[in-house]
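REVIEWER CHECKLIST
Item 1: Sequence provided? yes
Item 2: Single chain? yes
Item 3: Sequence as submitted:
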Amino acid sequence: MILPIFAYGKPVLKEKAKPITKDYPKLKELIDNMFETMYNANGVGLAAPQIGLSIRLFIVDGQAMKPDPQPDGSIENMEGFKKVFINPIILEENGEKWGFEEGCLSIPYIREVVQRPAKLKIHYFDEFWNEKMEEYDGLKARIIQHEYDHIEGILFIEHISPFRKQLIRNKLNKILQGKLDVDYPMMFK
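Item 4: Structure as written out by the authors:
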């Protein structure tokens, strides 16, 4: 089932999400609905707060992404990068920060260059409650960092300069007022 995506301005997007347990009601159905919702909106990641649930869960699928060259000039292979992250904790971020233009399904029509560390190490549980400890770099790390920010109550626009924020203020106000057409279901303030 395709769920509405909560728009910029909804309080749930600014909350630090809570961990869940194995007996979370209808978890498999929720994960399936999140993937369907994300694909319908042409996204590569979706966090539970974006559908109104303040829980530590996000999904990613970078396979649809047509990546630009990395800082070293290579093209990252996103094949098979479809994952579910339950109760994730980023243990470390390192490497040189690099900029990449990000967007967000909760903040439609706005894209900004965000600087993020190149690498991360993360602990999480997958959809079968298998415990994982993995390291990622490049675009995979960036997608995870972006979605992880959502469960921490942080939006990508908080990583941009005050000057850039001023330049997008009118667009953000249109989202707050629900004055834009989006080709996927959204919940406005």
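Item 5: Key structural point noted by reviewer: Helices lie at 27-40, 138-151, 162-176.
Item 6: Recommendation: ____
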